[in-house]
Specification:
The protein has 195 residues and is an alpha+beta fold. The chain has one domain (2-173). It is 49% helix and 12% strand. The protein has helices spanning 24-34, 45-48, 65-92, 130-144, 152-188, and strands spanning 2-5, 11-13, 101-106, 112-122. It has a 4-stranded mixed β-sheet. A hairpin with a 5-residue loop joins strand 3 (101-106) and strand 4. The radius of gyration is 27 Å and the shape is rod-shaped.
């Protein structure tokens, strides 16, 4: 998710993965009522069987089919979240105010999986420089739309950047018009003293 920070340090979240979060304890309760093995679950070699204990202390061989399914879902979610935030961070460049941060959920195997994340960027205009603001707005828009599947909040961030760019463009046009009008006024006030 992109989180923005303006010069006033007002933050707004821009991709909330927690809406799609899988809570394994709820999933496990739902799955235990049906308790049918899922043939589509791909078991990781480290989760099939064996005596190795996970960080949570449970033997990996002791995981039920529903637990293995949840671990598979959490692994997929973790990869999606990290890829999404990496795309934001790479496109943000110098306007990122730090690295990506993540919210984690512990799986039934005891491992922490990223379920949401954010990249904080500076979305404030460049004071007194509409040309630089225009360039910054373009960078913000590219950062917001960088992931393969931008979220609704990412789209809102891109729209905010588009509005910022439009305002900067209007300021640039006004500045250019004022400069041209100033030159015309100065030309009209010249006095020919060579006559």
């Amino acid at each position: 998710m992109i989180s923005s920070i303006s010069s006033y340090r007002l933050a707004a979240s821009y991709t909330d993965y927690s809406q799609r979060q899988t809570d394994y304890s709820q999933q496990q309760a739902a799955d235990s009522s049906t308790a049918k093995p899922d043939p589509n679950v791909q078991k990781s070699p480290g989760l099939k069987a064996g005596n190795a204990k996970s960080a949570g202390g449970k033997n990996n061989g002791e995981l039920s089919e529903s637990d293995l399914k949840v671990v598979s879902q959490l692994k997929k979610r973790d990869a999606e979240v990290k890829s999404h935030e990496a795309a934001h961070l790479a496109a943000a460049g110098g306007i990122a105010t730090g690295g990506a941060s993540f919210k984690y959920q512990q799986g039934p195997d005891g491992v922490q999986y990223a379920i949401s994340g954010e990249v904080r960027i500076d979305t404030s205009p460049v004071p007194g420089d509409p040309a630089a603001t225009l360039q910054k707005a373009d960078t913000i828009r590219r950062a917001a739309l960088a992931p393969a599947e931008p979220s609704g909040p990412d789209m809102q961030a891109a729209a905010g950047a588009t509005a910022m760019a439009a305002k900067a463009q209007a300021e640039l046009m006004q500045k250019n018009q004022d400069t041209q009008n100033g030159n015309k006024e100065r030309l009209g006030t010249k006095i020919n003293v060579s006559a």
